[in-house]
Amino acid sequence: MEDLLRSLAPQVLGALVRRYGHFGTAEDATQEALIAAAAQWPAEGVPENPRGWLIRVASYKLTDLLRGEQARAARQQQWQQYQWQPPEPVGGDQDDSLILLFMCCHPSLPVAGQIALTLRAVGGLTTAEIARAFLVPEDTMARRITRAKQRIKDSGVPFSMPHDVAERLNAVLHVLYLIFTEGYASIRADLSLEAIRLARLARRLLPDDGEVAALLALMLLTEARRAARLDARGDLVPLESQDRALWNAAFVKEGTKLVTAALTRGPAGPYGLQAAIAALHDEDPVDWPQITALYELLIAASPDNPVIRLNHAVAVAMTRGPRAGLALLDALEPVDYRHAAARAHLLELAGDLPAAAEAYRAAAARAPSLRHQRYLLSRISS
What we know:
Blueprint: H1 2-20, H2 23-44, H3 50-70, H4 76-79, H5 97-104, H6 111-122, H7 127-133, H8 138-155, H9 165-185, H10 189-205, H11 210-223, H12 249-263, H13 270-281, H14 288-301, H15 306-320, H16 322-330, H17 337-349, H18 353-365, H19 370-381
Helix pairs in contact: 1-2, 1-3, 1-5, 2-3, 5-6, 6-8, 6-9, 7-8, 9-10, 9-11, 10-11, 11-12, 11-13, 12-13, 13-14, 14-15, 15-16, 16-17, 17-18, 18-19
């Protein structure tokens, strides 16, 4: 029941926004319809057309909410924009989820607002859940979501597929990628799996787009390693030391199939290249020369991305020796603890243990969590 309502929620919200506008009120009406379904369906059974049932109930809830607004003198002018219409026929199969996703990733919004609104409106997460995921107070996240909704309203953007689909799709994929990486870096499986669910939704709605398929592949191939990332004590286990028997074989198989198909459609985009790298990391032995070549293609596409350049330096070290990688790494401007951690690792491979220990301490001092700090400090004594 929970999975069904979760999958239908963005479709219902999209249908209401398309017909009536007013994103915020439509979202409230959708939530009330979902609550009604959760209360009635277990006792009365799931309707033959659950999506239609929800749209119909949400439409009437929306009417009640707007009539409530009409009663308030302060909102009298706002009410003039709305004219009640009977709910549209709900027998069709139109799914407005993709339009809703594009709307949440509107270019007028800051990235933080895009992420929050996507998780709230399309992902169905509560404000409290989103706040916990990004380690901010709930009232801070509530204000962020409210500002995002207001900015969309003020933009006057119609509820329809945008004309600049390619440009806006990049924003959508970027938001989904950020949601996933936040969940994976913070070891929040719920957030990573929600990003995968939304990526599956995007692929279902855009089955012929190679970058959509590649992003889903990248997520699956990375998420497949989750069970092996921590040892029995909860400490981090580096990729090369992980027990591959613990990896999610179904995710590896699906991700490999997706990226293979995506790469046959034409030149690979950024997500295609990253997915191909992830697939090579999942092989045993790892093909470092090919990974190095793929990172060089990524650098050509994104020359100013410091993380790509850092990863390229590590790949070069694994291909041509640690000193070659260190030469590239030392030419980069440090961005965060990962630079010192990579430098420490390469110094260790080069046999310069005193310098490696110093670099590990520097990385640990800037680590984002105690778990990362423990791992980096443990490398000094190993």
